[in-house]
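RECORD TYPE: inverse folding
INPUT: structure tokens
STRUCTURE:
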């Protein structure tokens, strides 16, 4: 009977974990679907999203007023956040809140001080584990801006990579129809959102201001470190120097990106096989063995040919 109870407990927790994982996947897909519908149909949900974002921006701007007072101290206390590194992170993340390097350095010091006072207040009140908060809350306040900005930069470069093949195909089709590059970019970027639209909108703005085309290309390279995007811009620079048709350059880059993505998918699939084997070995197989052993034990105890019947 004890083996049956243990088996039931193991199966219960296994089904709970499985249910939670499926629930998380369902909620993620539902959120992505609602975001897609709101963007396509321009419903009120999209408007609410904009309002929520603007409120968040206003909170950040109010916080920055206090962070400016700590900017000088933050530039001196720059552990894991050198000024040069911060400038690169802000540039590659898109710098949504228009932070300067000094403001960023002051923000992390302000949050560290705020975390310290919050931990002291919790210690005075007597909250549980408040003694640990005296250490972890100031550290969390210091490192939170660094982690967020670096994560935003990484996510922005990933979004840039995902939209690039479709963007290149569309541009290539427009160029083959006889449209100039600038006009094709102006028309195509209207149908894209995110970092790709931001980067090429800024590129066109620089061209309109009289910035040389190669310099504008170099600025694109400085603001983004995505390998596929850099390959495209370098190909455009090389094609302009050698006189290669731009439409051909876009077509070649689109085919190359799709081939790279196919290879990446194959690589991920190859890496998934050992993980599946690991789960099967340490989760599925032990549970199956326990179920079979439990049935055998129950049959020996309560079955028609049980040990007790044989002894009697």
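DESIGNED SEQUENCE:
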């Amino acid at each position: 009977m004890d083996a049956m109870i243990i088996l039931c407990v193991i199966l219960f927790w296994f089904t709970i974990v499985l249910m939670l994982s499926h629930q998380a996947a369902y909620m993620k897909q539902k959120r992505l679907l609602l975001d897609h519908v709101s963007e396509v149909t321009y419903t009120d949900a999209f408007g609410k999203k904009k309002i929520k974002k603007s409120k968040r921006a206003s909170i950040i701007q109010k916080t920055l007023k206090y962070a400016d007072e700590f900017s000088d101290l933050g530039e001196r206390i720059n552990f894991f956040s050198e000024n040069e590194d911060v400038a690169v992170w802000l540039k590659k993340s898109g710098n949504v809140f228009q932070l300067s390097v000094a403001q960023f350095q002051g923000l992390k010091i302000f949050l560290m001080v705020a975390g310290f006072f919050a931990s002291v207040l919790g210690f005075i009140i007597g909250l549980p584990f408040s003694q640990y908060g005296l250490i972890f809350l100031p550290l969390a306040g210091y490192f939170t801006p660094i982690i967020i900005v670096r994560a935003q930069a990484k996510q922005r470069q990933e979004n840039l990579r995902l939209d690039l093949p479709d963007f290149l195909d569309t541009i290539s089709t427009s160029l083959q129809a006889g449209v100039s590059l600038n006009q094709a970019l102006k028309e195509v970027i209207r149908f894209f959102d995110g970092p790709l639209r931001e980067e090429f909108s800024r590129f066109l703005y620089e061209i309109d201001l009289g910035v040389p085309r190669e310099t504008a290309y170099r600025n694109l390279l400085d603001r983004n470190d995505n390998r596929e995007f850099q390959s495209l811009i370098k190909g455009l620079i090389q094609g302009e120097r050698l006189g290669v048709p731009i439409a051909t350059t876009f077509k070649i880059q689109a085919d190359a990106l799709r081939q790279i993505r196919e290879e990446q998918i194959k690589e991920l699939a190859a890496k998934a096989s050992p993980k599946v084997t690991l789960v099967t070995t340490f989760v599925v197989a032990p549970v199956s063995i326990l179920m079979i052993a439990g049935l055998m034990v129950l049959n020996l105890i309560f079955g028609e040919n049980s040990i007790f019947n044989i002894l009697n």
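NOTES: The chain is about 85% helix and 0% strand.
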